[in-house]
Amino acid sequence: MKLKHVALRFAACLVLLLGDRLFAVLALETNAAGALLSPSGAVDGSAFAIALGFLGCRLLFVLVFCGAVAWTAYDAVAPLSSRART
Amino acid sequence: MQALKRALPTVAAVAAFVVALRALAFACAYPAGALYDGDLDAQAELAHGMERWVEADLSRDDFATGSSRFDGEWLFATRMMAVLGYAQTAIEHPELAEAHGRLIDRAIDGLVDEPGRAFDREAWGRDPLDDLGSPRPHVAYLGYLALATSMARLVNPDSRHAALEQRIVDHLVARFEASELGLLESYPGEAYPIDNTSFFGALAVHDRATGEDHRALITHLCEGLASRYRDPHTGLLYQSVDPEDGGLIDGPRASGTALGAYFVSFADPSLSRALYRSMQSQLLVRTMGFGTTREYPPGHEGRGDVDSGPVLLGQGVSATGFTLALARIHGDRETYEATYATASFFGGPLHGNYALGGPIGDGLLFALVTALPASRWSEA
After folding, report:
1. Does ipTM top 0.90?
2. Contact state of A38 with B65 under an 8 Å Cβ cutoff
3. Which end of chain A is more exposed for a tag (fewer CB within 10 A), N or C?
4. Is the pTM of this model over 0.80?
5. Helix H segments across chain B?
């Protein structure tokens, strides 16, 4: 397991987290917040895009973070497993 | 044994994925502990965030439901829920009463001004305040306004809205006493148990604030709600009924039941608890540390509406938020924390506001997460 790979995985998480914060601030400043709560979808396009950007970053962060942790765990255990086989 | 060793990395990866997800849920739920315990700083941050909307010159144009009436309702609900949040936190922390009393009066100014009551006037063709003393109940406006103004009076007996509160209560008491169904119309030809429960709660708060005694009427109304408008199979409240004969129009739903149980907690905590238990047994879902609430009970299907908010994979956005209040009211810490994790994840809290909340989301969450435990009302 290379440290560089691990660092890259978690750097991707950080980038997504920053995107999440950026969209959150943007949503508050532009009052885009209620866009996804609207029952009819009668919302301004840019508000909808900001709200979706926020949610997209957030969901992607969860996937990438949990995936990075899982991948790192896999890499950590794999050598032990192959050593045991040989 | 060899197969097990070969599978070890995959097993470790799956376990790590699950642990990471649960850790995220824990992180999202972390602030819930302080809010559940009524921490002053945690509540004050929400109160401060809500000031942004109370002081703003909001209008129906700030909402985009696609319906002028619903835009008006959301504008109204933003301020009404702000009042509940400010009142609850002032009761929990008396040192906030003076400052929150001013914010409450400011929010009520927006509820009673021309634009604030326009949605109801347009529905009835008559102004709700001019109609006080008439046979028209205007419950979609006056029921909730009674709750807001009675809270104002409870926090500050000298509230500038005290005289109006008295007129609204007198009007609706007369209408309910004359009602055979125990329910009044929200709009002409429309009756919703949830709107009526706002007044059941308001009347109890009014009695605490003024020393008047409407216990007999409150008991009669709550018993009527439980016996006539609660589905016998699920224990949930009907969403809407026929104002002519009380017949079912829209069946049992979580959003109406949860918000109704919140309002009823001011008047009849045991009925509120019974409604929450019905929700607990059929609607509350826990997934990897995140809590959600189904909008429809088993055997019922639907796509949701303006009351439920979006319904995603059967889980209602409004119902999930309303569950926060009931969990705190009835001492269900685990559900409160798990549900807060979901609200926090999708809402995105940021210095007292929620990124995806907007005025109504912020108002709702402020009121819901600061809902008072049922026992506190006996001391209020």
Report:
1. no
2. yes
3. C
4. yes
5. 2-36, 40-55, 68-92, 97-112, 114-124, 139-155, 162-177, 193-210, 215-228, 254-264, 269-282, 317-329, 333-347, 358-369, 374-379
